[in-house]
Structure formats: structure tokens, C-alpha cells
């Protein structure tokens, strides 16, 4: 046609949205909260005033102390025609009443099947008169940066709102919880979208919208969704048990930096380094040791220390899994690959075990006896070191069974200070070799310097016994 433009806009998603809209719901909640008396006299209009009736109606329930009903709005979606609805935990937290509002105007009161604050997920159930329109989960692992996605929800109370964008990033950590692995999208997500679905263009739920970054409170194109890979496992557990049953390895971890990787002799930085074994936990069998670097768990590569807790949590309780580690047996040799097997416990039981251990710590510690100082303090790498004795245990509130060489002072602006080392910590190892005296520390650092090493890998213990590796430059 003469004068017509040869260019078309993006392909319409109207047909896809039409099929999905009926499965996306609005979640409204209400909560009674106690309102304390405010000490302000009740307002009254003068007798005979034409405003008296208005004031009486306005203030009849506002007499200072009493209850006020708070309300909130969010989104959700149906995954089972029988009436299973998914939303965010923060949408329904502390609610006295939860109502699911459907696109056709139907309102059904919901019961809570289970919640998981750690992933911000909640499962609700309603009793419909007829089967509901439901959607299914897709594979978030197959998403690529740049793929188109669609969000449907209830932004600012405007139900049935559709927005389209792309996957901006994957694996985002926004410090919202221990298993952060968010999909980032520029599809418009605003207040009220929380708990709503993020669809791929096949109509499958690949994410659950849960958070935004915004200085204004509105969408600026940075929204975050819980990936379906993580959500499905949690939702299945909540539906079956009403609670989560996560796998637990029973270790404490530290991130592997480039410097630590160099000090451990494992090549490029990867994996998670073991910094402690929880007594009585699944790994308390002598197979894993402090300093081991876990690079694979149950056949899945561990790229960073953030990956391991999430992968372990997704693994069934009681399963025996292969754990691939790198272990350095000799300071002069590179770390060697080793495979061990660990039978997973349950994280929720482990949390109770660790809480009990923390509450009783110190009550059964056996004194090891005081060590004679034997020599004066040594200044090295910006630290003042002394052999551990009774006086220093008392000065720095160290446990009776604390070991190593105590750091009595750290010079301001030194390399040690910049690495966050503080007085009261103890040095357990230098270059993965145990030390028990300040003289040994001095000797081993001198040997590292003689060998041309630029850094010293120190294993430090805090006053409460927590271990961490620190790499300090050798001047």
C-alpha cells in the first residue's frame, strides 16, 4: 500500500495473556492490631452543630485504645485446579484473614498450607465450586539473558495488569535470604506485584515476582523473581508436609578468593572452603577437614560458596551424596582431588542442634593448662603476637581449649588491619601448617618470604572459635 510503513512493532502477546489472566489472582489480607491509648481527648462538635452527626460517625470507633484493622494487597497464581494458590510469604505474613480475589469477581477465603520465610514463599488453599484455571511451572534453568518474559499481577491494586520485558540477569544476590538466586527482569514490577507469576513466552511460570529496587517506590526496570527451580522444591514440601525439609551438610563455609585459592594451591578461585564441622552433624565423621575446598556436590559444580547451601538445601534429607574436594596435604604440593560421601541430615534439626550447642558452649570445656610465655612478643605483618597463656586467655575472653598464637595488637593502617584482623584472634595455621608459638609464626613467614611468596595464608580463630582464612601480604 503506498505510503504504508514497512516496519512492524513487536509481535503481540495478547493471545498468551488471555490464556493466563484467569489463573492470576489478587491476594488481600487483614490483620487486627492493638492501638494503644494516645492520651488525646475525643473530638466533639458543639451540641446542635450541623457537623455533629458527621463527627460522631467519623470518631465512633476511634476512642484511643482498641483495635484497628490493617489491610494489604498482593498477587498470586493458581497451580492446581482444586484450589492451590502460590504467593509470597511477606504478602500474607501475620494476617488474620486471607482472601483470594479472582478475575471474575469471585472471592474465596484461603487457608494457609505452609510458609517458608527463607525463600519468601507461601502456599494457600481455597475451596472453589468448580475447577479453577491453573498454570504450570517451567524450567527457569533454561532461561537466557535477553529472553522475553511476562509479568501479571496486582500493582497498586490494579488487578490483571500485564507487563512484558526481558531477563536482565540471572543468579542475583540481593541479600534477601540465604538462598538468593534471583532472576532480574525489566518487565514492570511494582508494589502489589509481589507473589505474582513471571511467565516465559510458552505460558509457563519461570519465576515468582518478589522484590524491586526503586528509590521512588515505582518500577525503574529492576525487578527480581524467585526462579521456579528453587520454588518448586519448596512448594512441594509445603504441600506435602506443611513445612520445609531441607538437606543439611553440617559445615561452616568461607568464600574462596583469588588470594585464598593461591594460598591453598587450587589454581583458579572456585568452590567453598570448609571452615568448621558442626559437632554431631552429618559431616562429623572425619571425612571432611578444615581447609578442604568443596568443588562438586552430588555431581553439580560449586562455583562459589553461595551455591553450596542452596544446592544442599534442594537435596533430599537422608540421601548419601558424593562430595568432591580439593585437599592440600603438604605445603609444597598442590591440592589433590578427593571424593568422600556424606549422608545428609535435615537443616531444621541442625538449626536446633546448633542453637543448643551455642547455649551450652563453655559449660563442659576442659582446661588444657597454662603455657609458659617462654619469650617476648613478636611484631610481624602489622601484628603483635604472643604465646597463649592463662593471662591472655582471661584478657581476651578466650576459651579454655583455645589453641594457637594470640594476636595481642594490630597496627592501624597495616596490611593486617586492612584485612580485618583484630586483637584477641588466634593464629592456628600459617600456610596450612599448625603453629603453637609466636616463634613458629615468625619462622614460617620468613620461609615463605625466602621462597618468594608474596602473601601468607593464615587460619585465624575468633574469640568464640569461628575459623576463617585470611591472606596477608608479606612486606
From TrEMBL:
Pfam families: PDZ_2 (PF13180), Trypsin_2 (PF13365). Keywords: Hydrolase, Periplasm, Protease, Repeat, Serine protease, Signal, Stress response. The keyword Repeat applies. The active site is at residues 90, 120, 194. Its main location: periplasm. GO terms for cellular component: periplasmic space. This is Probable periplasmic serine endoprotease DegP-like. It catalyses: Acts on substrates that are at least partially unfolded. The cleavage site P1 residue is normally between a pair of hydrophobic residues, such as Val-|-Val. It comes from the Bacteria. The lineage of its organism: Bacteria, Pseudomonadati, Pseudomonadota, Alphaproteobacteria, Hyphomicrobiales. GO terms for molecular function: serine-type endopeptidase activity. It comes from Aurantimonas marianensis. SMART domains: PDZ.
